[in-house]
Structures are given as structure tokens and as C-alpha cells.
Amino acid sequence: MLIGAPAPELDASEWIGLPRPLAALRGRVVLVEVFQMLCPGCVSHGLPQAKRVEELFPEVAVIGLHSVFEHHEAMPPVALRAFLDEYRIRFPVAIDRHDGDRIPVTMRTYALQGTPSTLLIDRAGRLRQIAFGPLDDLALGAYLGQLLGEAGPDAEPAIELEPETAG
Amino acid sequence: MLIGAPAPELDASEWIGLPRPLAALRGRVVLVEVFQMLCPGCVSHGLPQAKRVEELFPEVAVIGLHSVFEHHEAMPPVALRAFLDEYRIRFPVAIDRHDGDRIPVTMRTYALQGTPSTLLIDRAGRLRQIAFGPLDDLALGAYLGQLLGEAGPDAEPAIELEPETAG
Amino acid sequence: MLIGAPAPELDASEWIGLPRPLAALRGRVVLVEVFQMLCPGCVSHGLPQAKRVEELFPEVAVIGLHSVFEHHEAMPPVALRAFLDEYRIRFPVAIDRHDGDRIPVTMRTYALQGTPSTLLIDRAGRLRQIAFGPLDDLALGAYLGQLLGEAGPDAEPAIELEPETAG
Amino acid sequence: MLIGAPAPELDASEWIGLPRPLAALRGRVVLVEVFQMLCPGCVSHGLPQAKRVEELFPEVAVIGLHSVFEHHEAMPPVALRAFLDEYRIRFPVAIDRHDGDRIPVTMRTYALQGTPSTLLIDRAGRLRQIAFGPLDDLALGAYLGQLLGEAGPDAEPAIELEPETAG
């Protein structure tokens, strides 16, 4: 539905780390990792994958979005801060705003099915992928490679990654 | 050295499966997995990764190249056939030609450092990457995504992969 | 220090699940998995291993001990309950009592170095092993096999496990 | 059938490494890893597990048995030697004798179903387990712990393993 259209702004009640609104990231490829700190698939797969993307692709802006839709009382900001500290997650995390509904605002805006979900946004600020559940590294790499290869509003040249060699 | 130049043809003394010379693959992205059947890193990493590329990216032509440079007497064609059967490797495999030198011909032409090595060739037939040793799935995916996103000689449109969802 | 001596009782401020004091488990081999819900090594290694022990060895009594010594405000009982629910942990969990010290009582009694820690108690109620950090499955299996093979106070016969066969 | 009875001697046409007939190992717990060098489950699971048993339990005598029952022409001794060298397998390997039948002699004697198979023999020389297919580390550890805890013909004391601690 939203694929190909401008990505709606994240509605954060709070940022942990420097705020990084999507509007400020035009010209860059953006990966938004939507998670809950007590979601096993986020802890074992989604968040470690987002960390590796951040390490491997300096050109990709990686952002976390903490979208709590269950066990709300167990995941307040103080717990999230401890979690991010323990798991060494350094990228900025937006806390998805609650307006009284069980499901937070940004999660509703993007019509997400659950966590983990991975959003990919191109250099022009358009939403290009929503993946729910574990996303294969090869497939995620291919999405990113394609988006990185596209010219942005300022027509940056395509990325050339360094080949990795055996130790 | 060779990066960016037309990829030299594979010099095969024999093909297992249908022969697939590079010249016949113009217009497609090609992955050549260079291996030895008794190389542990090829068995645990390189070949399984090549199989997953073949499954996930139908547009990529995957080819094996058996470049034996050690233990030659242990890896004759009859053993290679048994190996490919046991490991359920279905893509075509070229046996790199020996001309008397310990190192086979194609391996010397590409100046490969060892096995596993992964070669990536673009739609225009140019060599774009040589990776020696274990290659991260995210990085390989990104290379492929970028090459798949490029127009070929016949200017095919970019690939749009299906997002993968949770079961 | 404590190895070989009677295992001190767990000092629980609360049990989640049916209380299982050590005194009630005489005659059985007991594994106590000491963890914190926000400790990455506990989540990725210690707790999944304890779950597998419970599945594979019905004769071993598996107990969790939640010994919080950091980020106390992030891991109250309400959060622990949500965590156990999300991670499908069914064995009983004792919450290690706090008496004002940063380190809870049972953790001090056993002089534990951190989490995850795994305690093994024999059929006679004696502490036989304290392992801090990730414990290899083969090594843990060997400890358990040895303890299961020992006669208890009531001289039960040694356990004969079923061999596992390929699918 | 054979479980509990004296383990029949391995019938080797050749040993790679120092010959280690079972008769010479009385008083020790013995693990015999039955494999074929081109069997994927042996390469990915059975052999690495046997190597870890050898490293972790110095009291266990680990032996390989190469029982070729398919692709015979692809796995002659010269190929097996190259395989053992590449995979850094240091324990002695008996080559199961062929007498004209497709299935070699020791494999028939033990009525094995295929490879990998793991045989466990106690200090008194009795066969105690035959496991076909991937064997869980916890289960294998438990078998070994139980056998190591049993008195042998010379009534050696039970093994006490060192606990493993976090780095």
C-alpha cells in the first residue's frame, strides 16, 4: 500500500540517542528496525542484523523504533535504556508514541503486522520495503545494494564495497 | 587488476551438468563459485552460500569451478561427481583445466589466491568482484543487488524481490 | 569452596510457578540456572540450554534463579513474568531476595561471579558444580550423566537414555 | 541386540595413524565414529563432534571407522588421507574391510544403518550405545559422563571435569 510513497515520519514520544527524524536523512538509504525489547525474534535476529548492517554499510542510516504493543508495563523507557546498554545497541532509538490505543501510532500508520519488522527507505525518502519476521541476510543485502546503487536527489555515485578476504 | 574488465572465459577440461560458458550468459548477472571438494571452507561456507543464491535469485546464473591445486590425486572427476551428488549441488560445474602446472589454468588467469573464491560478473560480462575466503551474506547480497539493479546490454529493468514474511 | 557440601537453600522473595525448595528435591539431580532477564549470555545461551536439559532429561529438576545485581529498576517481577511468557520458559523461577545490598542474598551465599551461572546438585543434596559463563553442552551433559549415574539416598538405578536416531 | 555384550573387534584393512584395536583399550571408555568422507552429516556433525570429545575428555579414546558403502571408487585410501589432512582429524582411523560385499565387514557385524553412527564402549569392553544420525551434544555428554563414572575392571575413580568459566 505505502510501498513507493513517501515514508511517513516516525512519531516518537522520546528518542534514546540523538533524534534522527526521517526528514533529516534525505539523500541516504535508511533502515528502520521495529522491535520490542522482550520479543525473542527481535533479540535473536532483527537487532543483531541491524547492528551488522550499521557496521558493514556506513552509508546506511540505521534507526530503531521501539513499538510496544504487548506487555506494556514490562517495557518502560527505563527498561529499554538498560536493554540497549546490555545489548550494546548504539544506533538511535525512537520510542513509538502511545495515544491510548494498545498499538502505538507509527506502528498503526505503517500498518505493521508485528515485530520484528524492517523498513527500507530510499535516498528520495520513499518507503521501498516492509519485511515482517526474520529477513534473510542475502535478501536484505540485495535490497540495500539496489537502493545504494540508485542515484539520490543529489545523484550520488553508486557505492563500491570493499571485498572481504580470508584472515 | 581484472576488476572492471571483461571476464576471461572459464577454461574447462570437462563440465558436469550442461556447459555454461560465460559468453552465453551475457545479459545476466553471474556468480562463479571456485572450490575444491576437499576444502573445508568451501564445504561449510562457499558452496552452501552459492546454493542459497541460486534459490533466492533466479536471475543470477550460478556456476561452480572446480580448481584443484592440492591433493590432485584425491579429487578426480569420479570423486567430484560423487561429491556433487551427496551434497545435492545442481548448478553446472566446470573442471578447471590442468596443463602440467600444479595450479589449473583458469585459477592462474584470474590470479586467485585460493579456495573458496567467489567471482561476480555483471550483465555486460565484466568482472566486478573477486572475494577470497568466507564472504558475509549481507555483503554478497549487496553486490548482487547492485549488479541486478544495473541495466544490461539490453537494458532490463531492475529486479524487485519479494519481501520475506514470518511463518 | 562449597563444592561437595550440602547446597544452601535458595532464598526466594517470590516464586513464579510452583515453589520448588531444594529440600523438597532430595533424591533428584537438580540444575539451577542463575540468570538476569536482560543478560545477553543468559538469553542466548544459559536459558535455552536449561530448557533443553529439561526436555531431554525428565529426571533432572530444572529451576531458574533470577539474581538481579544490575539495572534493578528494569527487571521487576512484572517484567520478569512478561519475559518468561515471551521466551516460553516453563520451569519454576525463584526471585533471589534483596536485603538492601546491590547483590541479592542467594547470589552472595553461593559467591557467584555473575550471570549466567549453572549450579548442579546431586541426589544427596550436595553442591557438585558451579559453572560461570557459557557451559559447553558436552561438558554439561557429562556432569549430568555422572550425577544421574550415582545412587541416591534411596539407591535408584542409573538412567539409560534413549539413543537419538536420524529422521 | 549387541548392546551390553562385548564389542566385536574392528576389522580394518588398514589403519591411518597408530592402530588402536579395541582389545588394547580395555579400562578406557571408547568412542568409535563411523563415517564416510563424502557423507555430509559426517562432515558437518559427526566428525566435528568426535573431535570435540577428544579435546574435552582426555580419558575417552576416540577412533574413526571409515565404512564406505556407496561411491566406493570416490573414497579410496589416498583420498581419505587427503580428507583427514584437510579436516585436521588427528585420531586414528580404521578403514573398514571390504570382502566383496557392498557393505564392509565391521559395518555388517554391528548391523549399522548408515553414517554417521557413533558407538560407545565401556571400560569393560562392552558395547553400550549405537546412535545413528546426528546425536545431541547434551545426550552424548550424558552417555560419556555415565560411562566415565563407572568403575572399570581396575576400578578407576570417577572423572571430575573442570568447570568452564567465561572469558
Average pLDDT for all residues of chain A:
92
Q: Please write the string of helix (H) and strand (E) elements of chain A.
A: EEHEHEHEEH
> In angstroms, what is the radius of gyration of chain A?
16 Å
Tell me the overall shape of chain A.
Answer: globular
Oligomer: homotetramer
The largest β sheet of chain A comes out as: 6 strands, mixed
Strand order of the largest sheet of chain A: 1-4-3-2-5-6
| Terminal Cα span of chain A | 45 Å
By DSSP (H or I, 4+ residues per run), the number of helices of chain A equals 4
Structural commentary:
Four copies of one chain form a homotetramer. Chain A is α/β, with parallel strands linked by helices and 167 residues long. The first copy, chain A, is built from four helices and six strands. Chains A and C meet through helix 1 and helix 2 of A and helix 1 and helix 2 of C.
Write the layout of secondary structure elements.
4 copies of one chain form a homotetramer.
Chain A: E1 12-16, E2 29-35, H1 40-56, E3 60-66, H2 77-86, E4 93-96, H3 105-109, E5 117-121, E6 127-132, H4 137-149
Parallel strand pairs in A: 2-3, 3-4
Antiparallel strand pairs in A: 1-4, 2-5, 5-6
